Amino acid sequence: LALVPDHPWWQAAAFCLFRAFDILKPAPIRQMEQRFKGGFGVMVDDLLAAGYTLLVLALFKRVFV
Predict the structure, then answer these.
(1) pTM of the complete model
(2) Are the C-beta atoms of residues 11 and 62 closer than 8 Å to each other?
(3) Residues 15, 5, 59, CA angle at the centre, nearest 5°?
(4) Cα–Cα nearest to 25, from 57, 48, 58, 55
(5) Contact 6, 16 (CB under 8 A)
């Protein structure tokens, strides 16, 4: 959340998107989590979900704001 604008709407959107990507695990996230076992796989999974979140928010900000 340190990279997201300091506004409650952006913070809430980032949290919701991160949780959605973390739960749904789109294509590369699931494969990377399976490739790296244990705690490192969980960390990679979270980093990729955070990256997807930042990408979606950046695209949204570029197009609509």
Answers:
(1) 0.89
(2) no
(3) 75
(4) 48
(5) no
For 1-58, how does the pLDDT look when each residue is reduced to its tens digit (9 = 90+)?
A: 888 999 999 999 999 999 999 999 998 898 998 899 889 999 999 999 999 999 999 9
d(C-alpha 34, C-alpha 36), whole Å: 6
Q: Which helix (H) or strand (E) holds 14?
A: helix 8-24
Cβ atoms within 10 Å of 44's Cβ, excluding its own: 16
Separation between Cα atoms, residue 48 and residue 40, nearest integer Å: 12
* Residue written as token pair 């980093």: 47
Exposure on the CB side of residue 64, measured as CA atoms within 13 A: 6
